[in-house]
Amino acid sequence: MKTFRTAVLALLLSCGAAFAQQLPPLGGGVLGGFPVGATALGGSSGNVAAATAAATLTAAATGKTAYFSAFKFTSSGATAASIVICTVTGLAIGTQSYVLASVIGAVLGNQPLIVSFIPPQPASAINTNIVASCPSLGVGNTNAAMNAEGYLQ
Length: 153
Known about the structure:
By secondary structure, the protein is mostly beta strands.
């Protein structure tokens, strides 16, 4: 990895690219959107019908901390309109809550709820799972899915 980066840096410098000097030092910084040494985490509820959609980032490695970077909740409507509170729990900054309004009509789509944390937020403790969830949208709701992203470090 260092050899490739060194070659790219040398090539940029030989072309007179002043921005090459602004690259992070070798062996440090962020690689591919994650800190060096981090392991990508993802969780999904899969499709649920008239039930809670929950996605868990599992901090399964001993002595590691899960970091939460985003969630995406997509769904169809229900027989009646509803307003629910989606949450992210297990964060050091405490539980985060988001209001979602569902449309009337099981074949209609709700506006997706997409939330990103910049910078990613750590779990409240080492080896603690982070869960993004949204309760049932009600009778007639045939499709809802929660997806969560983050990393373990």
